[in-house]
Amino acid sequence: MKFNVVSSFATGILLATTICGAVYFTEDPVVTKAAAKPTKTVEKIVAQPTETEMKDKLLAAGYVVQPKAEFDKAIEAAKKAAAAATAPAANNSKKIAYRAVITVTQGMTSIDVGKMLEKAKIVPDDFKFSRDVEKKGVEKNLRPGTFTVDTEMTYDQVIATIFKK
What's the whole-model pTM score? Predict the structure, then answer.
């Protein structure tokens, strides 16, 4: 193709685009005959129900209707009642004591005993129990046998029961 032919083609495309853009942006939208005809719309006038009518309908449907201020008072009263109900229980709550029968066999370690005691809820942390046993230096003095321990006992009492000194 020659340069003149390509140049003429590009100029034609540019001119056509410019004309189309000018028409698009300057002309009003075309109004068709169907859109120009006014249509009859029937608006049904519905009266808004009064507040009393709305309450009556909701009550008839099984809903509870009350003003926001009453609702807030009822919520506060319920919170206070719940707090009052749990407060005496918290004050009078007794500590639950757990008792367990532990069987120590030959070859067990203080870590194994600590895991059993934690599982029985005698000690809160098996690792801490094992460290306390190691601090006392009695980890190798584990006595095989069956022992009864409970949460009323101190760490030292539990260690003295299961380990030889």
Answer: 0.43
